[in-house]
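WARN no homologs supplied; continuing
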Amino acid sequence: MKFLKLLTGFSVVHYVFLFGLAFLIRFYYARGFNGLYGQDAYAYFDAAALIARGQPLTPFFWGVGYPLTLASVFAVVGASAFVGQFINIIMGAALAPLIYLTARQIGLTMPSALLAGMLIAVCGQAVQSSVVIMADIPALFWALFSTIALLRHARTDRTVWLQTSAALLAFACMTRWLYLALIPVYALFLLATWRRVRVRPVIVASLTAVIVMLPQAAFSAINPFPVLDHAWVQGWSPLNAGRQSFVNIDGQFEYATINAQFYAAPLIDAYYLLPIFIPFVIVGIAALWRQRAVWWLLMGWWILPSIFLIGIPYQNIRFPLIVAPVVMLLAAAGVEWAIQRLPLPQKPILWIGVGIAAIGLSMFAFNPIVAGFVRTHLRDQETVSWALSHIPESATVYTMNLTLPLERVYAGEVRELYYETPATLAYAKTQEEAAYLLINLWQIENQWRGREPDIAVSWLRRRRGLTQIGRFGNYTLFAVHP
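OK structure emitted
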């Protein structure tokens, strides 16, 4: 009840406006798309469906927090891609009022808190991540709730708020392991707000977090795949900050920029935040310096995850979403500082103008990217339908990237090309069956050059022979000779 009182302590109109704005944007881009794409989204969905049915999980690479979130709803209304996507849309839309509440908790005025909420509502990457069945948005949702509870603990000195914060952060970590970086940040904030270390509250909060993590511990004990021993951790190096070419478990990559620049996207890329806000972020950093504990919380939240990301041998535009709320809070703080010092009598009108401009320009910047992302993955689903119109029911299909979508709709055998070797391909039984190859040929010959998929395709071409049937989008369909 106290948390509910906190949530309603500010104007409900602001929450409704921010949530409604964010929800309508996300719902618009989700039209016609079920949120499933690539391999990861299907894996999350399948894991959640198994949990909802009370069945044991198959081997799973990630934390179980997101599948548990989906399964809690699937168990009531049934498992479907629509339900899974709708959960993410709701959680993505809720980020806007959550950031608004966070801004108010750190002392920002109502107009600047509204601005911070609007910035996340119209953040292109946040919109994109909200319309897919992936863990990025849910993890950020739990982390923001955790931060609000932590800030509330600093105000009230109540242990229950610290327990709540620890539980929510544990679930965020169990949803995306990257949020483990916030643990030392929270510890630093507590040291800055406490006059001395308090052993009992720390023990109670730690035990609460351990209890929340028990499902993950139980699963990890029987899961054959190590959870934290990931290739990004193994390949991490500070030298990667200045690199843009990598060879990792996903192949060979030549990126346009170095890691340090790429993972600064929340500050410099309009897909996250309009560059016109960069000066205000800098001003916001200075403006919040007087609130030393809050300053350390925000800067730690920005710096520690960024240090990890710039050192991994991989680039993914959705990874730096973890630091987006911090950048937006700082931008709002900077705008507030500037407007308060302007000798203008009509400051409310100026705030409204800033808000409308931020919404309009941001949507103009991200619209083609989000729309293109959705079109691309709708195209993949169309590719599956096109390929099946050329493949008989009892054939074997070798593919990559489309393995899980194909398995859902094809009665024959679907084999993941990544796991094929000359030995498995040479197996006598498979050579007697009708077989087809559905691949993105450019990706195989470039990203995977000299690696398992390229070796497998080369073996099929040399030893069995391939006849091209046709192309659809980025994919080519071959008949494999018997």
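Residues 2-379 form one domain.
OK
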